[in-house]
Amino acid sequence: MKLSEYNKKRDFKKTAEPEGKVKKSGKELHFVVQKHNASRLHYDWRLEIDGVLVSWAVPKGPSTDTSVKRLAMHVEDHPMDYIDFEGTIPKGQYGGGTVMVWDTGTYIAEGSNDIAESEKMLRKMYKEGNIKVVMNGKKLKGSYHLVRMSGKQDEWLLLKGKDEYADKKDYDQHSVLTGRTLEEIENDKKSDIWQSNRDEKQNSAGDKDHILENGPTKVTFKKQATSTTFTAQDVADAKVLKSFPKTWKPQLATLADEPFDSDDWIFENKYDGYRALIQIRKQNVEIVSRNGLSFNNKYKKLVESFEIIKDDIILDGEIVIEDKKGKSNFQWLQYYQDNPDKGKLKCYVFDILYFNGFDLTSLELLQRKRILEALLPQTDDIIYSKHIIGKGIKALAATEKKGGEGLIAKKISSTYHVNKRSKEWLKIKVTKEQEMVIGGYTEPKGSRQGFGSLLLGYYEDGKFIYSGKVGTGFNEDSLKEMY
Known about the structure:
Number of helices: 8
Number of strands: 27
Radius of gyration: 26 Å
Strand content: 35-45%
Shape: elongated
Structural class: mainly beta
């Protein structure tokens, strides 16, 4: 095993990373799996073999399901001193991002109970491209296999072996060393910070130009100056489209009963406004409603603001009007054309579906949001919608205290489902509400225009149930508009 590739990528006069030296750890074989939020979220699977950590990058992480095969890309060996690193590598450096010790422990070659015999077996397995080990970590238990794909040098598959630890529940996503989440590690200013010297050419303004070639399509883009990195590799797995998808409609969320905590979910503010897709093609901006109707004439100021974006792009967001305290007012938004000076018109953007010929909907949520944050210009009326990971109950309490409407919970591993309602996106409202279907209306009486009351119902176990009628809360304009 050699560490020449590891050393080649690092200037140890500038970085605090451990220098690459071969060093056996003792009478046991050790491993570490580090969750690494770099240009894309992945897991670094590292096994001690001959005094170094032989390493693979696993995009979707290990699974307990024996039927699941995870892609594992073989990368350069790392030194043994790397085994307990948890902290932040600065953005723009080699491997820049947040690193968590997701799991660590000891392991042995499958079929052996002796360390010396295991080391001999592992050398042979590694050379043949078929590694079978028994893990004894805090999370990873039992048999795991790493198999090199036929005809491939660096592409392997990670599989769970069949044993009593197979097909258990999902893994906990906290650090086994400190109990922190990735977000907490990133936000901890006392975390270790490592530097490295990835050679990246920059222009005089500090922006990077990237070129991505994917099949017949060649895309060049200029990165916005933000704290989030975005490289061509981030969209390498996206599908190339021959034409701009102007008929797409947004994904919708399912109503949930109550908040919850889970490290597999993020939580965003639920905005009280109009859902919209922002379609920009050849510098022409079209803002459309969830039903495909144009908002351009109604919200011309936002159209002008989005013209700053020069890429072909489709964004998903919510149009709101806020008062001086930052609280949205839906009625002001409805009648914005009649009173455009009442409140501040804004668009909160929370997702990206398409970028310069690439369909991003198949990418996982956090990868899309990383791309979005890097590309989106930050103005006083175009705002990136931030999120928190895991702490839904606390987030809803904070939203309620501020007078907000609620939260949208989104599964981190979810892809984007165009024009579909999904249970991977959930609406969690501050007030207990029931979504109703308008089944009909009564005739107006006296001088009332439009209708008297709306007849409402809801679905339960596939049956439509009448729930009552509502006639209050409408003014003359809204009665006519609803009618």
